[in-house]
From TrEMBL, chains A, B:
The protein's name: GNAT family N-acetyltransferase
Domain of life where this protein originates: Bacteria
InterPro entries: Acyl_CoA_acyltransferase, GNAT_dom, Mito_N-acetyltransferase
PROSITE patterns registered for this protein in UniProt: GNAT
Organism: Albidovulum litorale
Residue span(s) of domain N-acetyltransferase: 1-160
Length: 160, 160
C-alpha cells in the first residue's frame, strides 16, 4: 500500500470512495444528497492537501490535511479520512492516520484536532485513541444519525 | 438599544467594529492583516444571518448566527459576537447573546456551540457561563496569543 498526494486524475476514484460514506450520512456532517462537485470541493478544496492510499492501481482510501483554524489557530491541523467500501480490516485507516501524523509534524503543526467524531463511529474512535488522541469534549446530541437519532459527537485532540 | 438584522448599508459600521478586534488578534482565529472584504465575507457570508445593536443611529455591536455544521449537525448553531470599542460595561454583549439565544430557538436550533473561545478572554467566558453555557472541552495550547503565547481554547455548548 503506497500513500501519495492526490492529483486531479484521482477525482473519479476519490468520489467513488466518498459517495457511499456521504450518502449513508452516519459519520460526516455533509448533506446526504451532496453532489459530486460539492463533495470533491469539500474534500479537496484549498487549503486542503489530499492524499490517497493505492495498491495495484486501486485506491483504498483518502485523507485531507488542513489548518483547523486561521490566524492564531493555524498551528493546529485537522484531517478527514475515508476508506473504500470493502477494505475494512486491512489497516487502511491506520496507514492513512500514521501518514497524516508524520505529514502534519513535517509541515510544522503542533497538534491535530478532530472537531466532530460521531460517537457511534466506534471503529474510528478506537483507531484514533490507539494513536494517542484524547477525547477532550463530548457534544451532547450534536449529530442526527439517520438510524440512531440524536447522538453525541466527540472533540478529539493530540499534540504532535 | 435596538437589535435588528444588518443590511449592506451597515457594512462600513460593522467593519469599524470588527477591525480593531481582528487587528488585535486576541480573540478570533482571523489573520491580523485580514482585509475589509475578507473580514466582511467571514462575518456576513452565507449562510450567516447578521444582526446589529443600534442606539441613536450608532452601532454598538454585531453578531452572526449560522449552522455550526451541515447535514446531520445542522440543528446546532454557532454565533460570533463583537462589540464596538468603548462600549465595555454597557451590557451590549449580554443583549446580543440574549437576542441570539431567542433567534436561534425561534429558528428551530436545538443547541448553540462556540467552537473556539480563547481561554484568556475571561470577560466573554463569564458572560457565556452566566447564560447557561458549559465548557465541554479545553484545547491545550490551541491559540497563539500575540502577547501571552500559546494559550488554551474552550469549546462551549448549551441546549436551547
Amino acid at each position: 500500500m503506497q500513500i501519495r498526494p492526490a492529483t486531479e486524475a484521482d477525482d473519479d476514484s476519490i468520489w467513488a470512495m466518498l459517495e457511499p460514506v456521504f450518502r449513508a450520512g452516519e459519520t460526516y456532517c455533509i448533506p446526504r444528497d451532496v453532489s459530486r462537485d460539492e463533495a470533491l470541493d469539500y474534500w479537496s478544496g484549498a487549503p486542503h492537501r489530499v492524499f490517497v492510499a493505492e495498491e495495484n492501481g486501486i485506491l483504498l482510501g483518502t485523507y485531507f490535511l488542513t489548518p483547523n483554524q486561521k490566524g492564531g489557530g493555524a498551528h493546529v491541523c485537522n484531517c478527514g479520512f475515508v476508506t473504500a467500501t470493502g477494505t475494512t480490516g486491512r489497516g487502511v485507516a491506520r496507514h492513512l492516520l500514521s501518514h497524516a501524523l508524520h505529514a502534519a509534524k513535517a509541515a510544522g503543526y503542533r497538534a491535530m484536532q478532530f472537531n466532530f467524531v460521531v460517537a457511534t463511529n466506534t471503529r474510528a474512535i478506537a483507531i484514533w485513541e490507539s494513536h494517542g488522541f484524547n477525547t477532550i469534549g463530548r457534544l451532547p446530541g450534536a449529530f442526527l444519525h439517520p438510524r440512531e437519532g440524536y447522538v453525541d459527537a466527540l472533540v478529539m485532540y493530540r499534540a504532535l
